[in-house]
Amino acid sequence: MVTVRAPATSANLGSGFDVFGVALSKPADVVTVEKAPETSIEVLGAGHQYIPEDPDKNTVGAVAESLDAPAHIRINKGVRPASGLGSSAASAAAAAVALDELYDRGHSREELVPIAAEGEAIVSGDAHEDNVAPALLGGFTIARNGGVTCVDAAIPLVVCLPDIVVSTRDARAVVPDGARMNEVVETVGNAATLTAGMHRDDPELVGDGLYDSIVTPARAELIDGYEGVRQAAFDAGATGVTISGAGPGVLATCKPGARQNVGVAMLDAFEVAGVDARVYQTEIGDGARVL
Ligand code: HSE
Predict the structure, then answer these.
(1) Partner residues linked to 283 by β-bridges
(2) How far apart are CA 207 and CA 84, in angstroms?
């Protein structure tokens, strides 16, 4: 039997749509695997009632198939589905590490990225790697066709999760088909600034680099109260604010010491919009870990 903890993640970081991701120090999923003649899945914890246990429909079923590693897989969800916090990626990454260990397959973490991403395709229709890469490797990750680059970084973060559901499929449906050249130039500048900020552990630069005028405005329409929450976070001292992944979670970067105020301000602003929410004071954390 092998048990693995894999963290929630925040993908996109505004300017890095489908490319950037960070591992969060909390929350996390915990997955336990045990050899079995056929794969079976049991789901407990946050939002378990919305997650199919059929291996053909669950993200970890595809991982078990891809590794040729049939097992009974128990998923304890710390990361609610449809949150924008990489819920399916956390389960897929944990299962990939656990099954690889259980069957002694010997894959590196980098080699497990595309395998875990297959699970994402079950949920969102696309095998993008911007959540599974940080869930497996930790830190700040840049995932593209040429492979994954990982940078250790220390940035204080606040994630505010409203009690509304936005599916990744719906959030991808509103992504514009194209962008104007001035928007592309601005986005490249912001993404480069964010990357430099990660190297320097600089929450001001990272916060500046979160800005995105292409995808985020379209998706903000799906999150009741988003504009008010964004403004409240800035007023309370956030250095940058954007949608976490496909939403509805909202991510803020902060200087050390500002997380408490920013978290309270975001919660209050969601309340003004009539939306219940919870907040995580977190930071960039480690990838999946065998327990
Ligand atoms: N990059 C993806 C998106 C992450 O924003 O649609 C969600 O899984």
Answers:
(1) 156
(2) 18
188 CB-contact burial (10 Å; exposed 0-12 / middle 13-18 / buried 19+): exposed
Pocket test for ligand 1, best of 17, 83, 219 (most atoms within 8 A of CB): 17
Residues 2-151, CATH architecture: 2-Layer Sandwich (3.30)
Task: Please say whether the beta carbons of 238 and 158 come within 8 A.
Answer: yes
User: Taking residues 40-66, what's their average pLDDT?
Assistant: 94
In 103-180, alpha helices (H): 109-124, 132-137, 168-173
Please say whether the beta carbons of 264 and 252 come within 8 A. no
Q: Give residue limits of the domains in the chain.
A: 2-151, 156-283
Residue 255 three-state SS = coil
Segment 268-289 mean pLDDT? 97
What is the signed CA dihedral for 14, 18, 19, 21, rounded to 10 degrees? 70
User: What's the predicted TM-score (pTM) here?
Assistant: 0.96
The reply to whether omega before 134 is within 30° of 0 (cis) is: no
- Top-confidence residue, 147 or 226: 226
120 catalytic? Reply is yes
- Annotation: CATH topology of 156-283: Alpha-Beta Plaits (3.30.70)
In the reported structure, the alpha carbon of residue 129 is separated from the centroid of ligand 1 by a whole-number distance in angstroms of: 9
The whole-number pLDDT of residue 124 equals 66
User: Which residues, other chains included, contact 188 with Cβ-Cβ below 8 Å and sequence gap of 6+?
Assistant: none
